[in-house]
């Protein structure tokens, strides 16, 4: 997650419009409730250094890569 400015309202921070740092796909992140990533079976330590949240496809790809290297 990215830190929000101190003057940003909690409502404005509830839904973040993001672009995946790996592929550029646009998606939203819901910080105040049920985000799509909570339903994913892939659980990774997020975010990786220098990255923000990943889109669904990149999260699944990263989890598969981690399973094969672990």
From TrEMBL:
It holds the Pfam family Cys_rich_CWC. InterPro entries: Cys_rich_CWC. It comes from the Bacteria. This is Cysteine-rich CWC family protein.
């Amino acid at each position: 997650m990215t830190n929000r400015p101190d003057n940003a309202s909690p409502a404005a921070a509830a839904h973040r419009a993001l672009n995946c740092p790996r592929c550029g796909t646009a998606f939203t992140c819901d910080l105040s409730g049920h985000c799509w990533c909570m339903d994913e079976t892939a659980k990774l330590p997020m975010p990786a250094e220098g990255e923000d949240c990943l889109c669904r496809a990149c999260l699944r790809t990263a989890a598969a890569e981690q399973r094969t290297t672990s």
